[in-house]
Amino acid sequence: MRAAFTVPIALMTMLAGAAEIHAPAQITAGNPITIQTSGSGDATFYLIGQTEASKRKVQAGADIKVDSLELERAGIYTAILCASDGCTSANFVVNPAAPNRLSFLVHPSRVPVDSPNRISAVAVVQDNFHNIVLKPEPVKFSVLPQDGKEVSATRQSENGVAWVRLSSAKKEGPARLGAAIGHANEVRVVRQVAAEACNLRIKASRTKKDFLIETDPVKDCSGNSVPDGTVVSFTKVDSAGKANVDVPIKRGVAKVELPVQGRAKITVASGVVTGNELEIGGGQ
Amino acid sequence: MTRCKSVRATRFGLIVLFASAFICVLVVRDLLVSAKESVPRVQLHTDNLGPREIEDLTSKSVPRDYALAWQTLEQALHENRPGLLDGYFTGLAKQDLTQRVNGQIKSGLRTRYQDGGHKLEAIFYSPAGEVMQLRDQAKLDVEVLDGDKVVYQELLNVEYTVMMTPGADRWLVRELQASTTTKP
């Protein structure tokens, strides 16, 4: 069926000294081009590309100007000229322009302190028109801790992608991660937060009716305060049975008032970390 | 009496034969239609993938979703229905293809693909798993139609650079950039 279309078109083109179209084989994105044609008479010009599907009336034999706006996205384009004697076409490639943008992905946005290779930073190198620049280009990655000196390293992109893996610092606080190429300088902020609680300890004191159980300031093993809102679980076992209470840390500590019947054992945990055990009651 | 019975049997046999032939024709026609609308063939290669190792589930869902993306792309460009692109495209890829379909609608054009299959090579999987880069060697028979008239037809081997990102329940095509083309 297709051959039935193609063969007559080709034959007509050959016999009639027909319209022809000549497009440059390769161009750079965002540049206008002139497509040369031969033949004569009214014709229709089609341009098909990544974002393009347009049609206009032209004169065969005259030059056809294609605007830069129509050639911003990299990819394969097809120029087609249809005159009274048939259709002819030419494919051409629009290549990305110079690198001048970055799509910068940093993951995660919150990370526990002192975690090796936990932060991933990926930069996709693009030109002004968001085309991926596939040829190798140097991308400068930088890390600027809150109270520290900037550290930077350059990585060559491969197929338009450059990446690094980073470890979080020992001290909590925000770190600014940057990636730069050409005029582009993208920055993302990663919040470094305290890791799991370490040396979780509780103490008890009597109130009028109950016991007040309170943790020491909850810190991780590097001495960073575990963020407020982190849940600490208290467990009480007395003659009335077993009871659990989950309490969020407020101003660095977690506390709870517990009624106790007779003697009781109190334990504490946060995440996978368990703390000390207390025995209270019987007048203590 | 016996002759009459044999004539009846012959008639019945012929009716059954014709009915079977008719059913066969219908089945074959339906099979051809469904083959036309079938999902393109995609082979995924992950031998050179890094730095993250591909998960079992991801190695199945990426080629499946990429094939479905191409199926919807081909249907959208043939039927001029940009809404079909919502399922498997996002970001710039969706924006570009939607613009192309809108251009076709404005100019009265359509594009018909005969998909000869895709050799998909995964080349980068980010450490956190939020983006995968792939290279696709596609065999495509492309026809551009102005109304019902075929104005262009060519068999092409096209290389695409593809970026896919995970969505809620599928991988989505975020970038689809053709870089080279050759005639087979």
Structure notes:
The complex is a heterodimer of chains A (284) and B (184). Chain A is mostly beta strands and 284 residues long. Chain A has one helix at 2-15, and strands at 20-22, 26-28, 33-38, 42-48, 53-59, 64-66, 75-83, 86-95, 101-107, 110-112, 119-126, 138-145, 151-156, 161-166, 173-181, 184-193, 202-206, 211-215, 231-238, 241-248, 255-258, 263-270, 273-281. Chain A has one helix and 23 strands. In chain B, a hairpin with a 2-residue loop joins strand 3 (132-146) and strand 4 (149-166). In chain B, 41% of the residues lie in helices and 36% in strands. Chain B folds into two domains: 1-36; 39-182, Nuclear Transport Factor 2, Chain: A. Chain B is of the alpha+beta class. Chain B has a five-stranded mixed sheet with strand order 1-2-3-4-5. The interface between A and B is large, with 41 and 43 residues.
Give the structure's gist in a few sentences.
Chain A has 284 residues and is mainly β. Chain A has one helix at residues 2-15, and strands spanning 20-22, 26-28, 33-38, 42-48, 53-59, 64-66, 75-83, 86-95, 101-107, 110-112, 119-126, 138-145, 151-156, 161-166, 173-181, 184-193, 202-206, 211-215, 231-238, 241-248, 255-258, 263-270, 273-281.
Fold topology:
The complex is a heterodimer of chains A (284) and B (184).
Chain A (H helix, E strand, L loop, with lengths): L1 H14 L4 E3 L3 E3 L4 E6 L3 E7 L4 E7 L4 E3 L8 E9 L2 E10 L5 E7 L2 E3 L6 E8 L11 E8 L5 E6 L4 E6 L6 E9 L2 E10 L8 E5 L4 E5 L15 E8 L2 E8 L6 E4 L4 E8 L2 E9 L3
Parallel strand pairs in A: 2-8, 10-16
Antiparallel strand pairs in A: 1-3, 3-6, 4-5, 4-7, 7-8, 9-11, 11-14, 12-13, 12-15, 15-16, 17-18, 18-21, 19-20, 19-22, 22-23
Chain B lengths: L1 H35 L5 E4 L10 H24 L11 H17 L1 E17 L6 E15 L2 E18 L4 E12 L2
Parallel strand pairs in B: 1-2
Antiparallel strand pairs in B: 2-3, 3-4, 4-5
Strand content of chain B: 35-45%
Tally of separate helices of chain B: 3
Instruction: Tell me the overall shape of chain B.
Output: extended
Order of secondary-structure elements of chain B: HEHHEEEE
Low-confidence stretches of chain B: 27-36
Structural class of chain B: alpha+beta
Number of domains of chain A: 3
The main sheet of chain A orders its strands as 2-8-7-4-5
Number of H/I helices of chain A: 1
Distance between the termini of chain A: 97 Å
Strand content of chain A: over 45%
Give the oligomer, counting copies of the same chain as homo and different chains as hetero.
heterodimer
